[in-house]
Amino acid sequence: MSKPAQNSIEVDVRTAYVEEQSKPAESHYVFAYSITIRNTGQSTARLISRHWLITDANGGVQEVFGEGVVGQQPLLRPGEDFSYTSGTTLPTPVGTMQGSYQMETDSGEQFEAIIAPFSLALPHMLH
To answer: Start and end of every ApaG domain (predicted)?
Structure first.
């Protein structure tokens, strides 16, 4: 049996197309994403910053860096989670997002929590 990781963060993502804010005729598609960050490790960790790569269907990439998420730098003790909802726009009806959160433990050790690629797509375009 393997030993639990000292620093382990799980990221769960759910997405939604925001039809009422989108303007397809103007190539403006709005997507919301709801994220739950869960500390499954043994150390308390604070989310310091985020890094996103947002890719549209034309291959265009937006790179986003910023402190915290939704104006917060949540502190997660082992077993705790933090959820938030944010959004992004694309010039195409489909795209992907991926990235990472930069985390820091109480002892000052920094590590990355990787966010696997996920799809942004109009509901009828999801497989």
So the answer is: 3-127
